[in-house]
Every structure is written in C-alpha cells, then in structure tokens.
Amino acid sequence: MAVFAPGQGQPQTFKLLSTGPGANTAMRELDIYKVTLRFRNAQTEEYFVRSQKDRLVNNYFWLAVQLLLVSCSMLVIWPFAPPLDRPEANRTRLLGMVALGSVMLAAIVSLLATGKETISARLHPNVAEVAAVAVMLFLVPLVYLMDLYYASKCLGYDPDSTWGNDRIVYKFSDTRAILAQSVLILASHLTLPLRWVVLAPQEVLSVLAYAGFAFVLGGPDGSDAWSTLLLFTALVICSAIGRRTIEMHQRESLQQIINERSLRAESEFRLCCEREKSRSTGAMRPPAPEEGSSDGNGSLHLDSLPETTTTAKAIGNGDD
Questions:
Q1: What is the mean pLDDT of residues 190-213?
Q2: Which range is the signal sequence, renumbered to this chain (predicted)?
Q3: Cβ contacts of 135-142, under 8 Å, gap ≥ 24
C-alpha cells in the first residue's frame, strides 16, 4: 500500500512511502505539482507526455472507427424517421442530419490523422492531446442535436406534436443522450492515455450541457432529471478520480525508472573513475626487481629466495 504525503511549499512534492509487506521503507520523492500532477522538471514532463503518444494515437484510431460505424448506423435511421410529410419533422430531421454529418466528418478526419504515420509522426504530443480533447468537446453538444426530442426543442417545436400522430406515439427519454455522454466520458478517461488535467474541460462541459438541455429547454424526464444529473455527475467525478489515480501510478513508475537509471549511470561513472585511477597508479609504480635481486634497500623479495629460484634447483639441497 502506498501513502502519499504532500511536502511543504510550492511546487508541492509527493512523498511515496511503501508500507506493504516486504516493501522498502525508504522514502521516495515524486517531484510533481499537487493539483496538475505535472513534473516540476520540464524535460521529465515532456518525456512523460511523449511516452504516451503512440498509445494515444493507436487507441484513438480504434475509437474513431467505432464512432464512424455508429454514425453510419444512425445515418440509415434518421432520414426515414416518421412522419415524412410534416414540415416541422423535416426541419428537425435536417438539423439532426447536419449534426450527424459533423460527427462523421470528425471521425473521418481522426482516422486520417491517426491512421497515416506520415501525419501522426509529425504531431507534437501536446498537440495530439489537445486535438483529442477538442474532438470530445465537439461531440458533447452534437449528442443532443441528434436526439429527436432535443432537436425539436432547439427549433422551438413540441416533440410530441412533431413526431407523434394517431398511429405513432413516441416515448421520449434522456437515456440515449446520457448513455452517449457516459460513453464519451469513459472512452476519454479509460481508453485514451490523456492527462487528467487536460480532460477537465470535457468533464465540466458534459455536466453543464446536460443541465442546460434538461432544465433550460426542458427534458422529457421532467423532475426526474435532477436524479439523472446527480448520477451523471457522480459518474464524471469517479472517472476523473480514476484517471488521476492511474496517472499518479504512471508518473511514479516513470520516476522510479529514472531514479534507477540515474543510479546505474552514477555507479558506472564511479567504476570507470576507479579503473582510470588504478591504471594511472599502476603506470607510476616502479618495475618489479628481477629474481634474486634486492629492492634497493638490501632486502630480498620472496620470489628471490633460494628455494624459489633456479639457483636452488641447480644446487639442490646440498646432499649430493
């Protein structure tokens, strides 16, 4: 288990204490800002963002594929939504088709940007993050414009009289719009490796957009929209906390790798210095005296003793 304790002063420093069984009790410092979780060192922060780029591009590509498939399925449904002979319904249908076309255009542009390596390789990691969030922000209001009820409300029509007749009775609900918003929130927070502070605009806009459409224009759920808003807000908050926790662990892992590499480089440097020092000391040392000679002080070396020299072999033990 890890316990985070904020340090003193600005920028804040998180100190990670490993308290699990068998864990190292030495305290490791994660030098980041308290709110944004950015590394205080600009180069480390840039490396962290750059390390997430490839996964961001790959995951965003598959999200764009799913978005395009969903848009194509809705493109088949929207033009044929009855009734077809009512001017209000035709104008509302046109608004929904424009919103749907905008979603398809965003999906196609995203596919081209992430599918071609020549384009994605030139994208700066920060630009890729901002572009991904910008598309999410662009999709938030379009979700409501593609809904039969809210599209009619935006044009000032009564949804019941616009789409209903003696044979067809529509039961409108916020379920589809809220589910679509929830998918966008979960996709950006769990699928895309984006920094949590970058996702803050989407979180705020998603909650405010539903509140505006449901309470200003008037939602189909009536007073139940309050409970829906509270539940959706709780979903957004939990997603933000989860994204922040994941990012914290990612940054802690990166900091640990950097520390290990720094210690390894420092150890190799010290070892290299010791080797150079030993080589220079060996070069300055006088050559060893020959066998049977003295070292200049009148004392013989061990390797010059009679029993260890060729003279001893020639003389033998003196018994002959």
A1: 95
A2: none
A3: 135/106, 135/110, 136/184, 136/188, 136/202, 137/201, 137/202, 137/205, 138/102, 138/106, 139/103, 139/106, 139/184, 140/181, 140/184, 140/202, 140/205, 140/206, 140/209, 141/209, 142/99, 142/102, 142/103
